[in-house]
Amino acid sequence: MTAPGGVLPDDVVDAAMVRALRLAVTAQEWGDTPIGAVVLGPDGAVLAEAANEREKRGDPTAHAEVLALRAAAAVHGDGWRLTGATLVVTLEPCTMCAGASVLARVARVVYGADDPKAGAAGSLWDVVRDRRLNHRPQVTGGVRAEESATLLRAFFRRRRAL
Ligand SMILES: [Zn+2]
């Protein structure tokens, strides 16, 4: 089903992004910025998923990607390595999450909207494809970007109105 390097079919990745967007919506229930992440195994099966829980946990590192990568590593069966896995996230990862993706050895990072203010997968930095690192995940941005951006804009608009 998958080519080496974790290149899953577009429909599998798209379905994961839809799932991540649903998780992003739930993050708002507890006051967190709407961001969701799903980790797919090499065969496209969902290993783990998470929403942003920074406010919920009072934890500056509880970004959706970090929570999903941790949970995925717990079930993937290769120790901490997520070899062949794909991280699907609704917003371009920050430096921490881009770094975590590299450290987890994921094959591919797929994200939705660009984050020009903090993105570390090409916007402000490019941590995931830095040639000085010996592991560099493939990167695909812009998957359902408008849906993610709309969700984020509405969230910040509501928050400013409070
Ligand atoms: Zn992050």
UniProtKB/TrEMBL annotation:
Its cofactor is Zn(2+). SUPFAM superfamilies: Cytidine deaminase-like. Coiled coil: none annotated. Keywords: Hydrolase, Metal-binding, tRNA processing, Zinc. It catalyses: adenosine(34) in tRNA + H2O + H(+) = inosine(34) in tRNA + NH4(+). It holds the Pfam family dCMP_cyt_deam_1. Zn(2+) binds at residues 63, 94, 97. CDD domains: nucleoside_deaminase. GO terms for molecular function: tRNA-specific adenosine-34 deaminase activity. The keyword Zinc applies. The active site is at residue 65. Gene3D superfamilies: Cytidine Deaminase, domain 2 (3.40.140.10). Residues 11-124 form the CMP/dCMP-type deaminase domain. Binds 1 zinc ion per subunit. Its EC number is 3.5.4.33. The keyword Transmembrane does not apply. InterPro entries: CMP_dCMP_dom, Cytidine_deaminase-like, tRNA_aden_deaminase. It is an enzyme of class 3 (hydrolase). Homodimer. Belongs to the cytidine and deoxycytidylate deaminase family. NCBIfam families: PRK10860.1. Catalyzes the deamination of adenosine to inosine at the wobble position 34 of tRNA(Arg2). This is tRNA-specific adenosine deaminase. It comes from Geodermatophilus arenarius.
